[in-house]
Amino acid sequence: MERSAVAGAPCSSMMSDNDISSEEQKAIDLTSEVFETSACERRVRVTVPRTEINGYFDKEFAELAETAHMPGFRVGKAPRKLVERRFRKEIVDRVKHVLVVDSLGQVTDSAEFTPISEPDLDMSALVLPEEGDFVFEFSIEVRPDFDLPEWKGLKLERPVRDFSSDDVDRAVKRVLSRYSDLEETTEPAALGDYLSADITVRGEGETLQSVEDELIKVSPSLSFHDGAVEDFDKLAVGAKVGDVITGRVTLSVDAPNEAFREKEVEVEFRIKKVERESLPNVTEGFLQRLGYDTEADFRDAVLDSLKRQLEHEQHRRARKQITNGLTVSATWELPPSLLKRQMEREFHRTIMELQRSGYSQEEIIARLNSIRQNSAANTAQSLKEHFILEKIAEIEKVEDAPEDYDTEISLIAAQHNVSPRRVRAQIEKAGHMDILRNQIIERKVLGMINEHAVFTDVPFIWNEQAEDGIEAVDWPLGGEPDAIDEATKEDLKAVHQEIDEKKRVDPNVRVQ
């Protein structure tokens, strides 16, 4: 059965290298009942007969008897009953673990659902009975069942552009800006200048954030994790050292500070410096520092980056148009726990997608802020898109190949001017190779859909895409949520009610 990597590893990852693999272990004579609790969740009850449990004990004790060290006996010569009494506790724990893992693998491999996360199962709470069958339950998130909509012959708009020399000039200036010097000026701030300011955010009479010496560019929009100061340039142009300017922002529906979601806050900027950008000269030494032999090589690389951004925009718009059409009937209720976990994965997916497409760190932060400001809705849509594209990949047998990873990693490495080996190591260490796989598979599926689509070319307004006047700040206006209050008597009562419910549905549950 094909497994999704959208929100977690397959169930078999619970098994250690020393455990019995599902391939070596014969099928267990168990029974399972699956209950649909929602479109993306299943509750599964597993019953393992006593005969199977005894078989696992016999196998473990037989192996242990050959190597057990018992006083007064040579290795492997101690009586079986004596070995059982001496190592009973250790063997019970091991049998329980191996039996549960084998059962989980068998149930999820044979079930009529595709798991997208690890089972919600507390191994330490399970008790292996001394007599009778072993019964345990778990919840698991699954890909929803749905009929695949027609995806061939879609009518799509495709942005196109032949980049001019002026386009490259503007892009070169943006690259040089990353290496510019800032020179303090006594003149009033102008569009494109930088302000060093102390920022204070207030709401309902309390201070939510206070940040000193934040460096911000005078731009039409100043974006934070949970909101944006629109028309910031109208506030900041003409400001001088010592001035205090104030804006008002309504925090987003998904602001980290839940108490202030969709509430208005006041953002105060106390100007400490006005600085003007001085771009570096494109000398031979500067070019070598960036890894180029000539200015022509540098400009070619910038043009290549623009083409990759155009490709990314074509991919993004195609995905949006395709999935908007295909997800019209995708009205599944997605579990909050799945959405919460997937939000972070969506950030990482976006980062890798933008990195391989030649976007700068500042542009990536701006895009992430936009996602964060409506993260639940964005994540829900992305999950639905992923489920549909993944199902197409499964039916059409679209697979990833080693060279696909080499291509993706090389593009990310080129953006950061580091070695592909280092990028691969970072991705593997962070556990994001499955995100990269999703990205590869989805791009291949979208390419296949594009082959069967009917396109209408529309202009790609690159200046609006690449220079949209957004300055991004990498923190939330409303701050992080307050610490959790100490549990009340009502909280404890609710916990005990939940424990009683768990005992009712799972006879083996053990509560500490």
Describe the structure.
With 512 residues, this protein is of the alpha+beta class. The chain contains 14 helices and 13 strands. A hairpin with a 2-residue loop joins strand 6 (194-203) and strand 7. Helix 1 crosses helix 2 (80-110), helix 6 (295-326) crosses helix 9 (375-396) and helix 6 crosses helix 12.
Brief synopsis:
This protein has 14 helices and 13 strands. By secondary structure, it is an alpha+beta fold.
What key attributes describe this structure?
disordered N terminus; alpha+beta; 512 residues; five-stranded antiparallel beta sheet; disordered C terminus; three-stranded antiparallel beta sheet
Poorly predicted ranges: 1-5, 7-23, 483-489, 501-512
Strand content: 15-25%
Shape estimate: elongated
Helical fraction equals 40-55%
Largest sheet: 5 strands, antiparallel
Q: Return the average pLDDT rounded to an integer.
A: 82
- Tell me the number of strands: 13
Structural class designation: alpha+beta
Order of helix and strand elements from N to C terminus: EEHHEEHEEEEEHEEHHHHHHHHEHEH
Oligomer: single chain
Summarize the topology.
Elements: E1 31-38, E2 41-48, H1 50-65, H2 80-110, E3 134-141, E4 155-160, H3 165-177, E5 181-184, E6 194-203, E7 206-217, E8 221-224, E9 227-230, H4 232-236, E10 244-250, E11 264-278, H5 284-290, H6 295-326, H7 336-356, H8 361-372, H9 375-396, H10 402-416, H11 420-430, H12 433-451, E12 454-459, H13 462-466, E13 470-472, H14 489-505
Parallel strand pairs: 4-12, 8-13
Antiparallel strand pairs: 1-2, 2-3, 5-11, 6-7, 6-11, 8-9, 10-11
Helix pairs in contact: 1-2, 3-6, 6-9, 6-12, 7-8, 7-9, 9-12, 10-11
